[in-house]
Amino acid sequence: MKKNLMTMAAVLCCTALLTSCEKNNPDQPEAPDTTPVAAVMDYRLSVTDDLFSAFNLTVEYYDAAGTLKTETMTSKDWTKTVKTNKLPATLGARLKIQLKNGFDSSKEGVFSAKHVYGCEYYVVNKSNEKLGSAITNVSSGGVDMKFEKVPDYAERYLDKPIMRFLYNFAADGTANKGSWE
User: Fold this and answer.
1) The dihedral of CA 99, 75, 91, 60: what is its sign?
2) What are the pLDDT digits (tens) for 145-166?
3) 3-state DSSP call for residue 47?
4) Residues 146, 149, 153, 158: is their CA dihedral positive or negative?
5) Confidence band (pLDDT; 50, 70, 90) for 32?
6) Which of these, 24, 64, 65, 90, has the minimum number of CB atoms within 10 Å of its CB?
């Protein structure tokens, strides 16, 4: 019995020594950290000259804390990068329009109410290293119409966004398309 205990003690000491040597071996690469802790999204919106000049454009988007923020588009292109504070998280944006006072609907020609929107998203570890590939989604929409139809178009989108995208990130970093309520 005493011999078995001595053998077991010797094995435990050797194991402890080997384990501590393995941890301190500078030639052995450290395993990469693959635990997602946050999501990053690059928002991008672009609109036509007609849409920008005729409408007040408001972007609603989710910020790092998951709070819905609002910004006015001051140019035809709007971009923003947001990194969440934690996972799970929700990220997305939507564009709302309101016809500017004094819009002249008696003009001749074609009014182009078109927009392009997109996002690129990925998750990062605690060292802010990108895990996996970034996912890019781009879409466009809109319509060409006579100037006289623009007030009707504005009325149709009075309380609704003309574009929107939303993604829900799970604790494991996977993202699924969501929907705005």
Assistant:
1) negative
2) 999 999 999 999 988 999 999 9
3) strand
4) positive
5) confident
6) 24
